[in-house]
Design goal:
Blueprint: E1 19-29, E2 37-42, E3 63-66, H1 77-80, H2 103-107, E4 113-116, E5 118-121, H3 122-130, H4 133-139, E6 142-146, H5 154-166, E7 170-175, H6 181-188, E8 193-197, H7 203-210, H8 215-225, E9 230-237, H9 245-258, E10 264-269, H10 274-280, H11 295-306, E11 311-315
Helix pairs in contact: 3-5, 5-6, 9-11
C-alpha cells in the first residue's frame, strides 16, 4: 500500500549515520493527516513568510529562545555565557551578540531559556514513532514529517519516511514545495499523503511576503500530484495578502487544469500566534493586516473553490 517504487531494488543503508536537526516532535495529533499521528518537525526553511507561526523553525541550526514572562531576573545566565555582554538588565537578550552556545539554557532555573532544535538520528526518530504503533493501527494514522520545510533536509526526511513505510507506518509530509525537483522527488517517493501549501498564485505578490517567487512551487505541485498516492492542497488564508476572489479563482482553475488527481483543499485561517514566537527569538513580527477574515468572507472563498469540483474544509 505504499509508494509507487515497489519494484525498486533494495539498497542497504546505514541509517544510524544519517541525522538531521529536529525542532519539535508532537504525539497524538489529529490535524496533520489521517487518524492519530506523530509529527516530526525538521528545522530549516527556505521561505520567510512574514506571518510564520513557527519562526523558530526557519534557521537550519539550533538557536536559543527566551520566554520573558518566565524570567526572574536572577541573572545567572550572564556568567554562564562566554559572551556575557549579550545579557542586559532582567536577563533580556541582545540577540545580535548571541552565539547560540546554549550555556544560558543550562544555567536558567526557571525555564525562561530554551533551545530550539537538536540533532537526532533516524533511529532516534523511529523510536519515538514506534511508541504509537497501536494508535496508528486502530485509527489509520501514522507519521507526518513537516517543518520548517522537510524537503530542506532531504536525506534525513527521506530515510525517516522510508523506514516508516518499511515498518508498515503510513507516511505524510507537509511541504511548501520549494526544493529542486530531483531532490524533492527523492523524498516524496516514500510519501503516502502529501500536504502541499499553495500560498499565492501571483509570483510578485508571493515573493514580496515569503522571500521567494512561486514558480518552482507550482511546477513541483503539478509533478508531485502525478506521483504521490494522495495529495491535499493546503491554502493558508492570510488577510490582505491572498484573500482576493481573483487569487482564489486562479487557484481553483490551476488545480482543476493541472492537478486532476487533487480533490481536496484545506483552508487554514490566519491567526497571530506567530507574533509572540517572533519576540522569543529576537525578531520583529513584520506582518500587519488591516482587515480581519470574517466567516462570511471565508465561506465565500470556500464556495469559489467548491465551484471547481473541490472538497473544501476550513481549519486553522
Amino acid at each position: 500500500m505504499r509508494c509507487k517504487n515497489d519494484d525498486a531494488p533494495a539498497v542497504a543503508i546505514n541509517t544510524e549515520e544519517i541525522s538531521g536537526i529536529v525542532f519539535d516532535t508532537q504525539r497524538f495529533s489529529i490535524h496533520d493527516g489521517h487518524g492519530i499521528r506523530t509529527l516530526i518537525f525538521l528545522k530549516g526553511c527556505p521561505l520567510r513568510c512574514e506571518w510564520c507561526t513557527n519562526p523558530e523553525s526557519q534557521t537550519f541550526s539550533p538557536q536559543a529562545g527566551f520566554f520573558a514572562e518566565k524570567c526572574s531576573g536572577c541573572m545567572k545566565c550572564a556568567p554562564a555565557c562566554p559572551y556575557g555582554q549579550a545579557f542586559c538588565e532582567s536577563g533580556r537578550v541582545e540577540w545580535e551578540k548571541c552565539e547560540a552556545c546554549m550555556n544560558c539554557v543550562e544555567a536558567c532555573m526557571y525555564e525562561a531559556r530554551v533551545t530550539y532544535g537538536k540533532r537526532m538520528t533516524v533511529d532516534e526518530v523511529m523510536e519515538i514513532a514506534r511508541r504509537d504503533m497501536v494508535f496508528f493501527e486502530k485509527s489509520g494514522g501514522g507519521v507526518t514529517v513537516g517543518g520548517g520545510e522537510a524537503a530542506a533536509q532531504p536525506a534525513f526526511a527521506r530515510e525517516i519516511l522510508r523506514r516508516c513505510q518499511e515498518e508498515g507506518i503510513h507516511t505524510a509530509m507537509e511541504t511548501c514545495g520549494y526544493a529542486p525537483w530531483e531532490s524533492f522527488k527523492s523524498v516524496i517517493q516514500y510519501v503516502d499523503l502529501l500536504l502541499y501549501d499553495i500560498k499565492h498564485m501571483d509570483t510578485i505578490a508571493h515573493k514580496a511576503k515569503t522571500g521567494v517567487d512561486n514558480r518552482l512551487i507550482l511546477d513541483n505541485a503539478v509533478k508531485a500530484s502525478q506521483m504521490v498516492r494522495e495529495m491535499i492542497v493546503r491554502f493558508p488564508l492570510i488577510p490582505d495578502f491572498n484573500d482576493s476572489e481573483e487569487n482564489v479563482q486562479r487557484m481553483g482553475m490551476f488545480i482543476k487544469d493541472n492537478m486532476p488527481g487533487v480533490r481536496r483543499v484545506d483552508i487554514l485561517r490566519y491567526h497571530s500566534v506567530g507574533e509572540s514566537k517572533h519576540a522569543r527569538i529576537g525578531r520583529e513580527y513584520l506582518f500587519k493586516a488591516e482587515n480581519e477574515l470574517s466567516d462570511e468572507k471565508v465561506n465565500s472563498l470556500k464556495s469559489i473553490l467548491e465551484s471547481f469540483g473541490l472538497h473544501v474544509t476550513i481549519g486553522g
